[in-house]
Every structure is written in structure tokens, then in C-alpha cells.
Design goal:
The chain has one domain: Immunoglobulin-like (Sandwich). Helix content is 3%, strand content 41%. The protein is globular, with a radius of gyration of 14 Å. It has one helix at 77-80; strands at residues 5-12, 20-28, 31-39, 44-51, 89-95, 101-107, 123-127, 143-148, 150-152. The protein is mostly beta strands and 153 residues long. Strands 1, 2, 3, 4, 5, 6, 7, 8 and 9 form a nine-stranded antiparallel beta sheet that branches.
């Protein structure tokens, strides 16, 4: 049996944006493997989160809040697990001076399609600022990129 996979194509939320990227997801025994690749973004650290709704309408605002089925406080999912973070708190991606960045992580407890921690049909949001892990959502600012997560057959 093959592990479940999903993909989100990230596009800029502002008219004329050249931001483009992808996020690939794969179920593993350790959790959900997440690989993010971004091009055409402003240099620096940017918060990246899974949001509850699978919509990028209204400049990404239709994606709603961070994916948070346990009503947990905001934090670092990779450092604190589901008990100390929103299920969608993926942390930060560093974008270089050429506008490119990559992030690889394993998100414990998340899955592509199974159970309450499933990401299929939700949205990935790239924020304009660094996630400082503050409350309630990390002070990461506006939404500059958005993609809808779709399970692959």
C-alpha cells in the first residue's frame, strides 16, 4: 500500500504578484512529511501555516483561521507537538535574496486524509512576516501566498 500524498500550488494573493510555489505532503510513520518550495517572494523569514478552509478567495482571507481542531494555543508544531501548537503551525520559511526558499519538516500527528488532523481540502498560507510564535496567531501579518491542499490519487 502506498502512503497518501497531497499537493498545494501556492500563488500570490495580490494582483500582479510573481510569487509561486508548491507544498507536497506525504503520510509517514513519524507524521506528515511537508516539503515547501517558494519562488518570487520577498527576502526574509515568513510564517507558513495550514488554514482551516480550502479557499484562497478574498486575497487568502477566505482560508479562515489556522487549522486548530483542538483549540490549542499558537506555537511551534515541530517543537511542541499538537499539545502545544495549532495543528497548522508549520513555523517559518527563509526566503533568500533571489526570492527563493525551501522548507522540509515532519508534522507529528497530521495526516493527508484520515481523522481530525487531516489536511486535505485545507489551505496553505504564506504570510508577509516572520511567525514569532506569539499569541494568538504569531504576528505574521498579511497573507501573501495561498494554495489549496488536494489529495493525490
Amino acid at each position: 500500500m502506498f502512503a497518501a500524498t497531497a499537493k498545494a500550488i501556492i500563488q500570490g494573493t495580490q494582483e500582479g504578484s510573481e510569487l509561486l510555489g508548491s507544498t507536497d505532503f506525504q503520510d509517514t510513520d513519524e507524521g506528515l512529511r511537508v516539503q515547501v518550495n517558494i519562488f518570487g517572494a520577498p527576502p526574509g523569514l515568513h510564517g507558513i501555516h495550514i488554514h482551516e478552509n480550502g479557499s484562497c478567495e478574498d486575497q487568502g482571507n477566505a482560508a479562515g483561521s489556522h487549522f486548530n481542531p483542538d483549540n490549542a494555543k499558537h506555537g511551534s508544531l515541530t517543537a511542541n507537538g499538537l499539545q502545544g501548537a495549532h495543528a497548522g503551525d508549520l513555523g517559518n520559511i527563509e526566503i533568500n535574496d533571489s526570492g527563493e526558499g525551501a522548507l522540509f519538516l515532519v508534522a507529528p500527528g497530521l495526516t493527508v486524509k484520515e481523522g481530525k488532523y487531516a489536511v486535505d481540502g485545507r489551505a496553505v498560507i504564506l504570510h508577509e512576516k516572520q511567525d514569532d510564535f506569539g499569541q494568538p496567531t504569531g504576528n505574521a501579518g498579511g497573507r501573501i501566498g495561498c494554495g489549496i491542499i488536494k489529495a493525490e490519487e
